[in-house]
Design brief:
This protein is an alpha+beta fold. It is built from four helices and four strands, in the order αβαββαβα. Strand 2 and strand 3 form a beta hairpin. The longest helix is centred in the C-terminal third of the chain and has 10 residues.
Amino acid sequence: MGLYINPRNETKEEFLVRLGQIITHEEAKTYPYPKDGSDMLVCLVDNGSFTAAGIADFPAERDRFIDGAAGRPTTWFLVPKEHLTPYLKARK
C-alpha cells in the first residue's frame, strides 16, 4: 500500500466527504477503472486510534486494501482524480 492522503487544512474524513462519493465495498471490488482515470478509489481504514486514507489507483492496489484491512472497518470513496493529483505525484 503506497499512496495516502493527508490534507493540511481538514481531516481525511472531511476531505473525502466534501470531494468524494461513498460507494459500497462490493462496488469497490468491481470498480471498472475507466481508461481516462477521471475518478479514483480511496479506502478509508479505521485503525482504532487513527484512520488512513489510501489511494487505490489500480486493481492490485485496491486488492491490497481489501485484503490488508484484516477486519478493520473500511469506507470506500470515489474521488475525482483532479483532487488527488498532489498525492499521485509522490508515485512518480
